[in-house]
Amino acid sequence: MKRDFLDLGDFDAARIGQLLALARELKAALRAGRAEPLLAGRSLAMIFQKPSLRTRVSFEMGMYQLGGHALYLSPDEIRIGERESVPDVARVLSRYVDAIMARVFAHAHVQQLAEWASVPVINGLSDYSHPCQAMADLLTILEKLGTLRDVRLTYLGDGNNVLHSLLVGGALMGMHVVGATPPDYCPDPDTVTLAEGLAEQAGGSIRLTHDPVAAVREADVLYTDTWTSMGQEEEAQRRNAAFPPFQINEELVAEGPSIAGIMHCLPAHRGQEITDPVADGPLSWLFDQAENRLHAQKAILVHVLEE
Ligand code: CP
Ligand code: NVA
Asked: How far is CA 231 from CA 4, 127, 161, 182, in A?
């Protein structure tokens, strides 16, 4: 059966652990100048309905480093679901390439691609989730703290795609994840229920709150993301009024005696969800996290394309 990579909830902790271990091996091999062309001759089509820096460049360089080839398909090019139906795009691309990575608006579109493609499909962000980002984030926390189990991760801001993947990924790995959001911007309740069940099995926990200061006091790691995700631009004014108490600034960080690192999936809107002194300060893990997109996704590519 083909292997898709759509959501972390499709995997168990053992598989996530294996992927993280492989990512670390691939990272060490690259640094030591002994990277192997594990995907020689293999190809990846990358469909983008939204802009990207990290996802595009890290997938493209990842395929290059693994000896394969990546093909960038811009938002204007395919116009998936408009110029051509999702099932048709899936079936046509399956005749040319060995795997598809897609960044889409509707999560249903990446699911439909996976349903119709005969090659593996990777979710490169949808309105619902961002599992590749969460893999890079878990890798970063593991490298920095030496463990994921019992790490207290507090996410501040919008209950969005990034939070959904962190809730599920953190729960699987036995972390204590707190989502601190304004009341009107909570994460999806079904995803919270899923994460609560997984956390219970793994010895971790999930907690939601609207109190940013209380959430920070208990945290080992703080995380934030944009207040206005791609596609929500028309809501920006209303969002900018609701989110300022959740900004990660020096005053808020000072409330957390155990904070070891600050994370942001990027792009950052400096002066909104995070301030310059924090993003560029001694606790910032922002650029290690961005680098780890490369290593985590190389592991995902090897996993989905393994014979
Ligand atoms: N974090 C992330 O996915 O970045 P891009 O939108 O630049 O790909
Ligand atoms: N939540 C953000 C993540 C960007 C990487 C968005 O969807 O725009």
From this structure: 25, 8, 12, 20
- Compute the distance from residue 263 Cα to the ligand 1 centre, in Å: 14
| pLDDT 10s digits, 101-139 | 999 999 999 999 999 999 999 999 999 999 999 999 999
CA geometry: angle 17, 19, 23, nearest 5 deg: 115
Query: pTM for the whole thing?
Result: 0.98
Q: Can you tell me which atom of ligand 2 is nearest the CA of 52? A: 5
Q: How wide is the angle at C-alpha 39 spanned by C-alphas 38 and 43, nearest 5°?
A: 170
Measured from the alpha carbon of residue 129, the closest ligand is: 2
- Taking each helix axis as running N to C, give the angle between helix 13-31 and helix 286-305, from 0 to 180 degrees, rounded to the nearest 10: 110
User: Which tokens go with 278?
Assistant: 């924090």
Separation of CA 128 and ligand 2 centre (Å): 10
Query: Does 267 sit behind a cis peptide bond, omega within 30 degrees of 0 on the bond before it?
Result: yes
Specify the DSSP class assigned to residue 187: P
Token digits of residue 128? 């619902």
Which residues, 6+ apart, have CB-to-CB distance to 307 below 8 Å? none
277 vs 97: CA distance, rounded Å = 44
3-state SS, 234-293, equals HHHHHHHHHCHHHCECHHHHCCCCCCCEEEECCCCCECCCECHHHHCCCCECHHHHHHHH
Instruction: Report yes or no: 293 and 162 within 8 Å, Cβ to Cβ.
Output: no
Domains of the chain: 8-130+292-305 (3.40.50.1370), 133-289 (3.40.50.1370)
Give pLDDT, residue 307: 75
Residues belonging to the active site = 103, 130, 133, 225, 265, 293
201-217 tens-digit pLDDT = 999 999 999 999 999 99
Q: Quick check: 259 and 215 in contact, CB under 8 A?
A: no
| C-alpha closest to that of 77 among 66, 89, 69, 65 | 89
